[in-house]
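S.,

Sequence below, as promised.
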Amino acid sequence: MNKPAVRDAALLVFRALLGVIFVAHGVDKMFFTGIDATAALFGQWGIIQPTLSAWLTAIIEMVCGALLVVGLLTTAAAGVLAVVMALAGYFVHLSQGLFATDGGFEYPLVLVGSLLMIVVFGAGRASLDGVLSRVEA
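The prediction came back faster than expected:
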């Protein structure tokens, strides 16, 4: 299992799945739930500047999620998303306990851990980062 092709395939699947999850959440905030409703929810949770925070969160989730899917600027995108999810875990989910079924911090914790794996191991060769690094060499 410790073959570069297997590692790169696993990283491709891993970051693509994470990226799709974040794009879906950003699209939901922006278009389905709507920014106004998302901002109202952020306000109920006590998040400062709820409208600005809703816009920033939705845009960051969509853009950085898409960057994860294609593997461009991958470690930076994963790092930004990890910070956003850590903040969400702290400000929203921590007071709800552990389990996701109760709104707890279980889900953001798994996402932060997953994103940190991408930060540490990178995008792999099956990514635009991998292609661009080979072109420069």
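The chain has one domain: 4-136.

Coffee later?
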